[in-house]
Amino acid sequence: MIAKAFTGSRRYWSWVTFLLVLAATGFACYLVQFNQGLTVTGMSRDVSWGLYIGQLTFLVGVAASAVMLVLPYYLHNVKAFGRITILGEFLAVAAIIMCLLFVFVDLGKPMRLLNMILYPTPNSILFWDMVVLSGYLLLNIVIGWTMLEAEYKTVAPPSWVKVLIYISIPWAVSIHTVTAFLYAGLPGRHYWLTAIMAARFLASAFASGPALLILLCFVIRRFSKFDPGQEAINKLAAIVTYAMIISVFFIGLEFFTAFYSQVPAHGMDTLLYLFTGLDGHGKLVPLMWLFVILAFIALILLINPRTRTREKTLMVACGAVFVSMWLEKGIGLVIGGFIPNAFNQVTEYSPTPLEMLITLGIWAIGALILTFLYKIAVTVKEEIL
After folding, report:
1. 199-251 pLDDT per residue, tens
2. Which of helix, strand or coil describes residue 282?
3. What would the 3-class secondary structure string for the chain be?
4. Are the C-beta atoms of residues 244 and 302 closer than 8 Å to each other?
5. Would you call 214 helix, strand, or coil by DSSP?
6. pLDDT by residue (tens digit) across 269-314?
7. What angle, rounded to 10 degrees, do the helices at 125-152 and 160-184 form?
């Protein structure tokens, strides 16, 4: 089946070439960072997690969202998801590989990665994050490929794969819960010190991941003979709607707790920095208000059944959900947690051009992996139509 990824139209190869150029540019920039160290990034003593860890945090959610297809299909027999379950699992594979690459470039010295393997520390949340991410990647590769191979050979999948599918359901929840614990377990960072951090992570994951999958289904429908099915898209859109409402509600709870109690240490200063600026500093203010506007547009389009079931408005809504959640979690939550610092001083962070090109390169690698996996899956599904 792998050979199917290497046959395609001129448009397909143009897209692959474009991604390869971006990936190569990102790799060249990474070699500069490898040579000179993390000083070429915008990170500092006060803001030690920047664009790289922000992408990791967001993409773990995208990967975890595959459970929104697997759980209804295998536990509740929702047949409509049968056509696209493999697409969700392959999306998880690409997202997890991107997560691991962002950890890799954030380490500065890649050899440090071996410390986690050679000297495991079970009392460290980071150790468990590595375990759940690696395990989830392996589960989705094995499950997705085995199911697709069975479909290709028009035979029933082996019985053992169902055991792995059932294991993957709680595992999907665990990867984003453990990632949330990385933040909520740091008592020195008041903005992250909230009991609903894991719930916030899961809600935003179940909004952004399925929103991206809906957009990918529209692309597949347009450029191939395989139709993911309108019923599956409608059900996913309903999931995105409820998850987005809950996600915005959780963010509202943080505002209430911080401002009603008037306790600066409970994240009030960080929220002020993010949305109005603090002590004359406000680099993230435009981005956070863009998040608010996009989230508002998405909710209007998704809550209304007419716009939620119309293809063009649903695409706008899903795009707004994806970008708004990326801004809120991938930028505001991670970077905002460091501002102000322990001495209540503001040290701002801006990613350098080199940092942004490395990030773009990793996104290109993820898109390339997803392109190859979807090319194989869609070609198989076209052949058995």
Report:
1. 998 999 889 999 999 999 999 988 888 888 888 899 899 999 999 999 999 99
2. coil
3. CHHHHHCCCHHHHHHHHHHHHHHHHHHHHHHHHHHHCHHHCCCCCCCCCCHHHHHHHHHHHHHHCCHHHHHHHHHCCCHHHHHCHHHHHHHHHHHHHHHHHHHHHHCCCHHHHHHHHHCCCCCCHHHHHHHHHHHHHHHHHHHHHHHHHHHHCCCCCCCHHHHHHHHHHHHHHHHHHHHHHHHHCCCCCHHHCCCCHHHHHHHHHHHHHHHHHHHHHHHHHHHCCCCCCHHHHHHHHHHHHHHHHHHHHHHHHHHHHHHHHCCHHHCHHHHHHHHCCECCECCCHHHHHHHHHHHHHHHHHHHCHHHHHCHHHHHHHHHHHHHHHHHHHHHHHHHHCCCCCCCCCCCCCCCCHHHHHHHHHHHHHHHHHHHHHHHHHHHHHHHCC
4. yes
5. helix
6. 899 999 998 888 888 999 999 999 999 999 999 999 999 989 899 9
7. 150
How far is residue 75 CA from its own chain's centroid?
24
With a CB cutoff of 8 Å and minimum separation 6, the contacts of 361 are 22, 23, 24, 25, 26, 27, 29, 30
CA pair distance 156, 161, nearest whole angstrom: 11
The model's confidence at residue 165, banded by pLDDT at 50, 70 and 90, is confident
Residue 49 to residue 103: CA distance in whole angstroms: 11
Both tokens of residue 337? 């947690």
What's the confidence (pLDDT) of residue 251?
A: 92
Residues found in the chain: 385
Query: What are the φ/ψ torsions at residue 119 (nearest 5 degrees)?
Result: -125, 70
